[in-house]
Amino acid sequence: MRLDFVREDYVRPASLEAVPIMKFENACLQVRKVVEYLAFASLASNRQLYETEWSGFVRENDFSKLLRRLQKINPQFLPTSVSIEGLNSSGEWLMKDNEFQLEPHVLTSTYGRLGNVLHAKNPYSDSTNWEEYQTFLRQGVKAIISAIQDHVAILATGEHLLVRMSGNDQPIQPYILRER
C-alpha cells in the first residue's frame, strides 16, 4: 500500500485523500524538521560552525546529544519568546519575555514522540492511539508558533535580533525589527 501511495503520488496527488494516516505521518515529519531548524537557527550566521555541527548530527542522529552540543556552543541557542508591546518615546521596542519558552527537553521529547509515528510499528505492541498523537501534534504546532511569533534570537556570533514572524494564510515571513 505504501509503495502504491508513493507511485500514485506522482500521478495523482489527490491520492493523499485516500490514505489520511500518511498525511499525518508527513505532518509529523515536517514538525520534526521545524524542530531541527529551530535548534540550528542560532548557528546560521556562521557557515563553518553550522556545517560542522550539521554533519555531526547527520552521522550520529541523536537529537538530545545535538542539543547538548549546541548548548555548549551557544547557551541561548533557542529563540526567546517575547511579547512586543510597542515602541517607547526613543523608538526602541518594548517587550517582555513570555511565560512559555522553548526548552531543550521539550524539543527532545517532541522530536522523539513524533518519531514514533514515523517508524515501522512492532505488530505485538499495543495499538497506536492516533487521536492522542493528533492532539499532541496540534498542541505542539500551536506551542511552536506561539513561541516564535515574536522572539529574540541570539546568534552564535553574539548578535541579538528581535524577530516578528508574520504569515496568517500566506507563507510565514520573518521580519528583523531590531538588533540589540
Describe the protein in words.
By secondary structure, the protein is α+β, with helices and mostly antiparallel strands. Helix content is 51%, strand content 18%. The protein contains six helices and five strands; from the N terminus they run ααααββααβββ. Strand 1 and strand 2 form a beta hairpin. The longest helix is centred in the first third of the chain and has 21 residues, at 20-40. It is globular. The chain starts with a helix and ends with a strand.
Based on the model shown, name its key terms.
180 residues; alpha+beta; 5-stranded antiparallel sheet; 6 helices; 5 strands; disordered N terminus
Lay out the secondary structure.
Blueprint: H1 2-11, H2 20-40, H3 47-60, H4 63-73, E1 80-87, E2 93-97, H5 104-118, H6 130-149, E3 150-154, E4 160-166, E5 173-179
Antiparallel strand pairs: 1-2, 1-3, 3-4, 4-5
Helix pairs in contact: 2-5, 2-6, 4-5
